[in-house]
Amino acid sequence: MRLAGKVAIISGAASGMGAATARMFAREGAKVVIADVLEHEGRQIADGIGVSARFEPLDVTQEGSWAVVVGATTGHFGKLDVLVNNAGISGSAEQDFYSTEVGIGSWRLTPPECSWASSTRSRP
Ligand SMILES: NC(=O)c1ccc[n+]([C@@H]2O[C@H](COP(=O)([O-])OP(=O)(O)OC[C@H]3O[C@@H](n4cnc5c(N)ncnc54)[C@H](O)[C@@H]3O)[C@@H](O)[C@H]2O)c1
Question: Which domain holds residue 96?
Fold first, then answer.
């Protein structure tokens, strides 16, 4: 039970792997913040988990949005132990996965973990 009593923010938790991660964390005894741009879906996931979960709106590309979510998390649950930075997009017609160049527009729209991967190629 290494997650028992921990407080976690999980970005992109309104669907897919983030939602599954949130449910698993809660089963293991953690408090989870479902943080996503999809408010309706995120609230449904949080409601399905129960009192150990809450939804907070988050756009991971906006620095100020992070400050609000961290403040809401520590305000509601009293602390923050874990960040699962799962939010992401699976590319667009503008992006070529094998390209050695990343346009500044794509860079700004790409969530952090994807940006980190991109930085191993070419940062504009
Ligand atoms: N599913 C796969 O096979 C796979 C493979 C490799 C990497 N990934 C990565 O894993 C992560 C989750 O994948 P998934 O299949 O569960 O995807 P998904 O599309 O089901 O979930 C991604 C979530 O991220 C949210 N999101 C997107 N942009 C956001 C933003 N700017 N701010 C906040 N939330 C945002 C979406 O609203 C969505 O709820 C993604 O980062 C994806 O790129 C997935």
Answer: 88-124
